[in-house]
Amino acid sequence: MSASTGTAGVVADFRATSRESLQSVRRRLDEASEGASSDDLVATGDQLDAAADLLGREAVLRRTLADSSTSPEAREGLAGTVFDNQVGRAAAEVVKAAAAASWSRPDDLVQSLRVVAREALLAAAEADGRLDSVEDELFRLGRIVGGQPDLERLLGSPSADPEGKQKVLDELLENKAEPITRRLAAQLVAHPLAHHVSAGLERLAELAADRRQRSVATVRSVVALSDDQQERLAGVLARIYRREITVHLEVDPELLGGLVIQVGDEVIDGSAAGKLDDLGRRLG
To answer: What integer pLDDT is reported at residue 193 of this predicted model?
Structure first.
């Protein structure tokens, strides 16, 4: 496994200091879990999420571990005292690395552990050869949730019954999704990484793609593209962006024709609707 560099999309409101620290913590996860089995990685992910739960509840401990006026060695030592006998070696090493890092806000320390917890689960899917399926399921689930405002509000509500939200998730996934997808979705609904659950799911899909050093291109088309067409499009985009591209396709009849392609913040609008809108702006 290797740590990837695309941290900005994972936790969009992290400032530069926290983004750099998150990157170092992700690298520590890779080092600490090198050669680990899928089951071990799942356990590490669950333990890191539990560590984040503890720090989320214990404000004094959270602030102390994120206090830059204290030496990194002292913060790491305190984290070791608290966690070494409570979680496995890999999880403990990651938590101590997070404690020794610098954070713009104490809450960023907690969020970083959430991120690496989910990345450990993605690594488990990767170890089992199921990362493609998990990525696709996360992306599709994000689109389903984002397309239904009432569902978005329910899953994102901190006051909604947790068991009720889990039941809704089970119904959405129809008991057919990968176990890692179900675990990630449950964690995200319990502790969102974004203001909207749908955005958090899409960011997890991006994180899955990022693990393979690939970018995600969201492609909207008036008709479904064949597998061959999607493969050729991915090849063209890979040449443009000089890295592998995963194509996620959405069918949108309102486009009238053509394609709208989004890679990160860049949008390529080749649709008939987009051209008409552009013409209208020029004539207006």
So the answer is: 66
Range of the domain at 253: 214-283
For 243-249, what is the mean pLDDT? 81
Helix (H) or strand (E) holding 104: none
**How many other CB atoms are there within 10 angstroms of residue 175's CB atom?**
7
Q: When comparing pLDDT for 184 and 253, which is higher?
A: 184
Which among 104, 128, 152 is the end of a domain?
128
- Helices first, then strands: H and E counts in the chain: 13, 4
Q: Dmax over Cα atoms in the chain, in whole Å?
A: 69
| Rounded Cα gap, residues 77 and 114, in angstroms | 21
Residues in the chain: 284
Whether residue 168 contacts residue 141, with contact meaning beta carbons closer than 8 Å, is answered with no
Same domain for 27 and 74, yes or no, is yes
Is the separation of the CB atoms in 40 and 127 below 8 Å?
Answer: no
d(CA 199, CA 142): 7
Average pLDDT value over all residues in the chain? 86
CA 17 to chain centre: 19
Q: Is 225 exposed, middle or buried (0-12, 13-18, 19+ CB in 10 A)?
A: middle
Query: pTM of the full predicted structure?
Result: 0.73
Mean of the pLDDT values across residues 225-243? 85
